[in-house]
Amino acid sequence: MLRIITSLVAVLTVASIQSQTTLKETPKLVIGITIDQLRGDYLDLFQHTFTDKGFKRLLNEGLVYQNMSFDYANVSSASAIATIYTGTNPNYHGVTTDKKYSPSKNREVSSFDDEAYLGNYTKEKLSPLVLKVSSVVDELKLASQGYSEVYSFAPNAEQALASGGRMANCAFWLEEYSGRWATSTFYKDFHWSIDQENRSNAYSNDVASLVWKPIMDVSNYKAFPYTVSNASFQHTFPSFSYLKKSPLTNSHISESSLKLVEKADLGKRPNPDFLALTFYLGNYPGAADKNYSLEIQDAYAQLDRTLGDFLDKIDKTVGLKNTLIFVTSTGYFDAEEIYPADNKMAGGVFYTNRCEALLNMFLMAIYGDGQWVDKLYDNQIYLNRKLIKDKNLNLAEVQEKAAEFIVEFTGVQDAATSSQLLNGKANDNMTPYKNIYTKDVSGDIFIEIQPGYKIVDEQLASTAKEEKRVRQNAITAPVIFFGHHIKAEKIKRTIKATEIAPTVSSVLRIRSPNAARMQALPEFLQINF
Prior knowledge:
This protein is α/β, with parallel strands linked by helices. The protein folds into two domains: about 30-335 and about 475-525, Alkaline Phosphatase, subunit A (3-Layer(aba) Sandwich); about 350-470, Gyrase A, domain 2 (2-Layer Sandwich). It contains 17 helices and 19 strands. The strands form four sheets. Strands 5-8-7-6-9-1-10-18-2-19 form a ten-stranded mixed beta sheet, sandwiched between helices. Helix 4 (about 75-85) packs parallel to helix 7.
């Protein structure tokens, strides 16, 4: 009898242990939400304008990391999204910026420019093949043998392609001139619901008929004591490029993606599905105040409502308990600064075209006649590699001579050649440029302009003169995980952007992207059990 009781106790003990260590199901749907230029300080400043269903719900019920950092210079929307989804820096994944200079075409092109593929609802010829490594959605496709469905939506092509990756069913963005959902023929699954929407949706019919009005009385928008005008606003849009930087586009992205979730039965299959969304929370170009505007406060308030509706509808269709949602920022903020006429701030003007001309004259004096400088673009100098090769010159030597000349310019803080970056010979303050250097895309010399200087290209028409004031302030870039088995917690430490993809991979129980070296965030070790 004693043996029977002992055996029974042992069996019950083992069963109890097994029940406690049973693996929980993976989420049925993963939703990655990247909010371009989301600022953590603005979430605090504007919280009195939020409802309980949007940002407050995410912040109160989610696992919130106070800040996320990027380990490279000149963070942009496309490079940030590619870094988040691949778990590695641009020197590995290949996306250094939204637009790039093409020496062969001698002009600016999309970083995803690809003449081999046509556009669908667009004339743009693009593909995700610039991505040199796998992303978390690629790995999900591999693990499910293609059965998981992956879609991405974004205002711009570069954002959609960076998040959709090479193996998405389709990546959608808003075409610049028609406002319809566009994609590349690289993708083979242009879902019928989006095609139907393109043919009928009023959003793309007449941009002039759309109006942005504040969602509440502007007297509620009192976060800044520096706002010039407290009068309400009403914006119409001269083009879709303006519309894409308004809250109306965020709502449109939410509505279209929710329609696809329902029509494509995302989250209803044995294998997890993935939806990648990009929203915009940067400055509106038509705002009277560039940095302390009523518009940016209203944009946060409107996205708060959009997120609230989105979460409610996902809960009804898939269930939040079956859905893992992660919300990230792109980690930068584009400030448009207007200085008074009697400005006495430190700084000056750095003229890109004058720098090009003087550098070319300097190299001609050393190496002879020729067009030695192709272009100064995005603070990078592209030398004429063909001319250097034809004259049997040492590339590293020419680069160093050019860098030594450039660093003497007024307004130049430092300069480093690609050879110096690769060989570890650059100054420490230029180290972040190493993580963004890609030999197929980057220039020969990276230039760091002193803060406070304005970068001007005089060769552009006076009405479209390119001006940018250098500012190196860091912003707080929060990261939020919400939904599937996530317990509410606030983590004050700063995490790396390269930790996101391995973390999502661990929850999905798939391999991390092939260039991701970081491990999953430690708070997630207990989620799978």
